[in-house]
Amino acid sequence: LRSVRQVQATDRAFAAMLEDNSVVAWGNAACGGDCSAVEDQLMGVKQVQATSSAFAAILEDGSVVTWGGPRSGGDSSAVRDQLRSVRQV
Fold first, then answer.
1. Spatial contact of 1 and 15, defined as CB atoms under 8 Å apart
2. What letters, b where the CB count within 10 A reaches 16 and e where it falls short, cover 17-36?
3. In terms of DSSP bridges, do strands 54-59 and 64-68 run parallel, antiparallel, or are they unpaired?
4. Within 10 A of 81 (CB to CB), how many other CB atoms are there?
């Protein structure tokens, strides 16, 4: 990987935010190592945070994209409408 700005880790996966504000993830898919389901949403990322098995990315527009283990925060669909104008996770 080149042009990495930030790296976060769950118990078994990593997510790297690149200089173009995109995200690359790798490792155990159940722990957030596979972001392909949300890959098209991971542009304009400002910040990435991790739990034990999930990641959350704050986008430039203040929305939040999550992936990884649903019980660890990887599924935010139930609160998606409330995740607007987010500044920090």
1. no
2. beeeeebebebebbbbbbbe
3. antiparallel
4. 7
pLDDT, tens digit, for every residue of 26-80? 999 999 999 999 999 999 999 999 999 999 999 999 999 999 999 999 999 998 8
**What is the 8-class DSSP label of residue 21?**
S
Q: What is the pLDDT of residue 36?
A: 97
Distances (CA, A) of 62 to 12, 58, 71: 27, 6, 23
Nearest CA to 66 out of 79, 27, 44 is that of 79
